[in-house]
């Protein structure tokens, strides 16, 4: 998405992060609360979250891609983050190159189809407006809720690309193996 632009879905507004205390505080929440991070090896302090927040905003400004805030359209409250982001260069040796789609929503937003709703809008944006050839998603093998979203939005499993995530420490083997799902621009969309 271009900086300053937003995507509107039936129940959400997806927008770039703004340098406000409210956005920074929410970003810290989704990077520190145990319930949301059971499939991730990290819990970020506020200082660490602020550092990542600044890096992600700079990346979005440079190429228009990145993680964006998902807000409830009726209340304006933040409910998660999602987006299309370039797979980091240092990870391309172990992860397929290109653009990934992802999501992380707060527990009070779970089970309502919000991640799927946002992901469908982002896939359309990525293929129809940005002109991407394919989009990938990946998750730890036990993250069945995220894998269900990947299937629901029409992505296909790519077991030939499954990998051990280089960012996961070796002392966390239960989080190491990841599955990859992909969709091509020419694939049918549900």
TrEMBL record:
InterPro entries the record matches: Acyl_CoA_acyltransferase (IPR016181), GNAT_dom (IPR000182), N-acetyltransferase (IPR051531)
N-acetyltransferase domain segment(s): 14-186
Pfam families listed in its UniProt record: Acetyltransf_3
Matching CDD domains: NAT_SF
Recorded superkingdom: Bacteria
PANTHER family according to UniProt: GNAT FAMILY, PUTATIVE (AFU_ORTHOLOGUE AFUA_3G00765)-RELATED-RELATED, N-ACETYLTRANSFERASE DOMAIN-CONTAINING PROTEIN
Designated name of the protein: GNAT family N-acetyltransferase
Organism: Hoeflea ulvae
